[in-house]
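pinging the channel bc i need a second pair of eyes. not urgent but kinda urgent?? the chain im working w is below, pasted from the shared doc
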Amino acid sequence: MTLPAPAHVPESDEVHSVRRALRSPRILHTEVLAALVVALALIPEAISFSIIAGVDPRVGLFASFTMAVTVAILGGRPAMISAATGAVALVVAPVMREHGFDHLIATVLLGGLLQILMAVGGVAKLMRFIPRSVMVGFVNALAILILVAQFPHLIDVPWLVYPMVAFGLVVIVLLPRLTTVVPAPLVAIVILTAITVVAALDVPDVGDEGELPSSLPALFTPDVPLTFETLRIIAPYAFAMALVGIMESLMTAKLVDDITDTHSDKTRETWGQGVANIVTGLFGGMGGCAMIGQTMINVKVSGARTRISTFLAGVFLLILVVGFGDVVATIPMAALVAVMIMVAVGSFDWHSVAPSTLRRMPRSETLVMVTTVVVVVATENLAIGVVVGVLVASVMFARRVAHFTQVIVVARPDEDTRVYKVVGELFFASSNDLVHQFDYAGDPRHVVIDLSDSHIWDASSVAALDAIETKYAAKGKKVTIEGLNEASRSRHERLAGRLPVGP
């Protein structure tokens, strides 16, 4: 998978794309039908996430509506779907369990505010430090989690579920070869629902997942005291929610950038997520972030590209659960399972695990990818997996670069002088071994260390040079350091002799 970084798409281009979609029946048709498929797929997931968070199903459904509509307007990544998510549900569940619904909503509001502050602080720029191998592992782990999430709907169920899932997969795979006028997932859902209703099949349906709401969301103010004690209770969870939400949203945005070969405004997406969570909290929602599975349905499966699909996904979701709840409740879970299985298969980067790729890829890159996948799948938390993956990648990079630093003995200009040339970058990983590469006992009275082909990056390197001078001085020998570039000289002069030197 290649992750291009094309030029930024101006806001005027985004507006133009929406206007072009509104004026083009073909594009608008794609956006509308994509939104309908996403809305149908959101319903059982939002209910499931509500159960994880320990709240009523309407809390997750209303959160999905407000998140999608708000992010469609304020977010920085067109066509990306944001709603109630499992990651956020896991973070806020302890607050609901231990302190109640009002504290949960207060947590969501504070989490949204923290995301806005993080956006102002430039946290979105940290995305540049996420290597490709972590991104690939993130995508593969996501696909595995989506697939594993379907297992409960395939275990201990009536036997009719299996042929229905198989039929749905056949429709989704083969129909695009005949026509793309209507999204194949929508056709599979409609056909399987019709068969279930007409034949009165006794199979699990959306209605079995939880009760759907019958009224519109209303403004809600959490009844919590505005005290330091309240802040002490909700702040850790709000901070965790803000971090998880931002990380998943920005990773999803980066993935959509790659699929659509466009660039998104990550800072705008960050504060857009924050505002969306505040709006969601004000309407009694459980909070959320970008949903990768639904985003893949929208962008990769259905071909949507504008904010229209995101906005309509939220609108359709509200209309379906409030106005057509009885009809939606009859949709067999087998149809939605088939859709999500194809999303998982399509999301997985099969090229990354091909034998030919593994033979060519450096082992360190493969290790980072596998580590990310294992941690994400084990914790069921994409954010933790990404952090661990980045840490492993950083360690592997530091280890690899450290071996590039060499100390070379140059021809002696006279009997009393020996010249050493250091080649490579000096930083904490490479400078640790620097002290052991000199002949303190055998060298003459004057030692020259030439750093013209090196660079001092940190205090560890300066401390190592101080240690070398100390060791030579203990034997009555003098060290001259030369060839420093301007940045290295400035750092060396500022720190030399002022750092503790080990034995």
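so The two ends are 49 Å apart (CA to CA). and Residues 228-260 form the longest helix (33 residues). — does that match what u expected or am i reading it wrong
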